[in-house]
Amino acid sequence: MKTSILLATYKRTDILERSLQGYRLLLDKETSFEIIIVDNACLTSTKELITSFQDLPITYLECSKPGKNSALNVGLKHVTGDYVILTDDDAIPDANWLQEYKKAFLKYPTYSVFGGAILPHSSHWPSWLDKENPQIQGAYVIRSPEKTDLAVEPTYLWGPNMAIKRDVFTTGFNFNEDIGPNGGDYVMGSETEFLGRLGIAGYKAMFLNNVLVSHQIREEQLNTSWLKNRAIRQGKGLARHKIDHDKYEKSVKILLGLPRYLLVQYIKSWLMLPFKRLTLSPKNYVSYMYKLYWRKGELIFLKDNNQWYR
Average model confidence (pLDDT) for the chain? Predict the structure, then answer.
């Protein structure tokens, strides 16, 4: 059984280098795999870095069309494995990563979608960030391990650590190039949108407790300004997902083109923000603030796409 590892990269050779060093640990236990890296910035420095890892079975490709999903779709045309493991350029694989995936592919032959835990990789974790808060986990793409393998909805899985049976792609599925990271402001949720379509099509998913990667948390991400922007993008992604799957009740009262109850909740939460800052612990305050900006992103997307209730 051969596996194809597919990832896109964009202007961050230092991060990619740390991840590729982790891939070298796979060589001690696995040989039947390929790594396809699609450079979405088409930089000479990225190509030179990848070339320096000649001991790894890497195919280097370029995609000049902006967007991570555009780059992944380019890479899909070149995969040769029976399964495609999708990850990110800032995800460092555990030494047993491929072995555990291959065990699962054999153990669960009727499943087509797989994923696993995503652990934080950081030199320090600020005391004011609640690592156990699901929304904070979402911001930093952290998914805790489970005690055992679990059958889940495909959307439970996250992009830095998931695998898809190649047959899924040969039937015509690919990534939506209108959403996801594109080098600028963007709506999050591209993997959720993709996995949602797989779920509707009837593909079964399994969360694997021993399939691990570590997600590099950068220093510039550990501040409230970054968190606010992240929350807004996640809120926009949530709104898009709910619109696509008809999750908003169209009979609710509308105010300023928005669901009145959501707008009222947002305003009340915003007015409470100074009080919360005085009364909550730093960790709980940041979690409260994050939820507020998440809601802001949701309302922005609904306002910009006001056909949702018509």
Answer: 93
- The distance from CA 173 to its chain's CA centroid, rounded to whole angstroms, is 18
Which residues are within 8 A (CB) of 252 and not within 5 positions of it... i.e. 6 or more apart? 259, 260, 261, 309
| pLDDT 10s digits, 260-272 | 999 999 999 999 9
Closest C-alpha among 249, 250, 241, 215 to residue 298:
241
Helix (H, G, I), strand (E, B) or coil at 38: strand
Give me Rg for the CA atoms of the chain.
20
- β-pair partners for 39: 9, 62
Give the residue from 161, 157, 159, 172 showing the smallest Cα distance to 76: 172
The per-residue pLDDT for range 30-51, each reduced to its tens digit, is: 778 999 999 999 999 999 999 9
Quote the CA–CA distance of 291 and 293 in Å, as a whole number. Answer: 6
Judge contact between 75 and 46, C-beta under 8 A. no
3-218 topology per CATH: Spore Coat Polysaccharide Biosynthesis Protein SpsA; Chain A (3.90.550)
Domain boundaries defined on the chain: 3-218, 224-309
